[in-house]
Design a protein that fits this description.
This protein is mainly β. Helices cover 11% and strands 42% of the residues. Keywords: Cell cycle, Cell division, Repeat, WD repeat.
Length: 161
């Protein structure tokens, strides 16, 4: 090991930390999720050692995945203190405005993972299921290339008199 000393120690969560995820487009930003007595997603500046923001999700945070193509964060939730909470929530970054939520497991979400291409997210639930989701769309640049390609191909099939 390079060093046995830690750089920072964040103690703001009020329960066990259940989830961690580095932001793919800002290497200083780390997201963390707290357990049942905390229910918060916290964003940290890991370079400065400071808290950026804290969002009460009304449920235990068990998984976090950043969208690799858009500035969004997906959270997976366990035990809830509110009927309003969802098992999975999508948050816009950096405002942390809730974009939407899903409730498709019959029990709590225990873990989230993302495919290497960033398009598919997998959730593992307390209902003993693994579910695959197309929550994150393809990057905007890919969509433009596809539409240009489609237009070019369409032009080749046009009949000119």
């Amino acid at each position: 090991m390079y060093s046995s000393n830690f750089l920072h120690c964040f103690k703001d969560h009020r329960a066990a930390v259940k989830a961690l995820a580095w932001c793919p487009y800002d290497s200083a930003v780390l997201a963390s999720g707290g357990g049942t007595d905390d229910r918060c997603i916290k964003l940290w500046n890991a370079q400065k050692g400071t808290n950026i923001c804290s969002i009460d999700t009304k449920a235990q945070v068990c998984g976090l995945q950043w969208n690799k193509h858009y500035k969004e964060l997906l959270s997976g939730h366990g035990y809830s203190t509110s009927a309003e909470s969802s098992q999975m929530c999508l948050w816009q970054y950096p405002s942390m405005t809730k974009v939407g939520g899903l409730d498709r497991h019959s029990s709590r979400v225990l873990h989230l993972s993302q495919s290497p291409d960033g398009l598919t997210v997998v959730s593992a639930g307390g209902d003993e299921t693994i579910r695959f989701w197309e929550i994150f769309g393809p990057p905007v640049t890919d969509r433009r290339e596809d539409s240009v390609l489609d237009n070019l191909l369409s032009m080749k099939t046009l009949q000119i008199r």
